[in-house]
Amino acid sequence: MSEHAEQNTGRAIENIALLDLTTMTAGALARVESIRNVATVIVPQSLSEALAAIPMRNVAQVLPVPDGARVNVHTGAVTMDGAALAAGAGQPTILVVTGVLVVTSPVERVGFQGIMVVGAVVAPDGSQAALAGALRNVVGSVTYYRWAEGQTVKVLQGESRISGEVLANPNGMPEDILLSAGALVVTGPVLTVGFQQVIAVGGLVAPEESEAVLSPALTTVGGAVWYTAPPRLFNGKDRFGAGFFELLDGPVTLVLNGEFRVEPDVTREIVRERVAAIALNGVLEASADLVPLLQVLAVQKNGLIKTIDEDR
Hints:
The protein is of the alpha/beta class. 15% of the residues lie in helices and 49% in strands. The protein is built from eight helices and 20 strands. The strands form five sheets. A four-stranded parallel β-sheet has the order 1-2-3-4. A four-stranded parallel β-sheet has the order 5-6-7-8.
């Protein structure tokens, strides 16, 4: 979500994903009391000092852009070919992407004044020289894939669940690329991979038995979880009580992205019985008695497993 701050002057601006200040005057910005819980702020360079004087909390990124430049903002997965990047926008424009910028053919030149990405850039080999001069600010990764004439770049957006058979690419070409702009969950065994490359931006969750088959073609941004028990994915915030674990049919792999709490009524015994592994990207809270077990079960951890009410 993008929001122009003119709507919020004179009070706090909070709880939005993208805050675009490029249309705001210095006087209007001076009336903003605070900025909280904002993922990305776009600000003209001339207002950078004024923005820095405003109390900010939980602001992930601030992107300064040249004064007077038009800003073209996209959120999520944006797919463009090399010709579209060369054409630009017909006037001085900064392309801002919060998510994934996917380029489907080689880039020889860039018509935008600059490109800023919070997330990831995926482009064909041979595009490095043109993109290097245009990428002004990338908070994340830049990945180049092997390009071939006539190939298809298949893009999956958001959290995607696919069967192992899909990775055989039965109706495609061996040169094709599969790109997941979000977590990619493979729900069954992979017997063969019919893609030249599988790129998972946001991580991969796949059966452990398929690792040897899938790994040679795999590029991940966010890591891979190879499961033996079926995965259950949770994003955002949630709480797990004893009832949740009791209702599970059998052991699961918990994939947690965000902030989570295991309630005090949950015992070690039921967690041992119902949780085979944990992949955590964020914060997981539990009782002091349970934290050591959760740490042992965490096969992948980017964040913190902590005691309830413990300071981070």
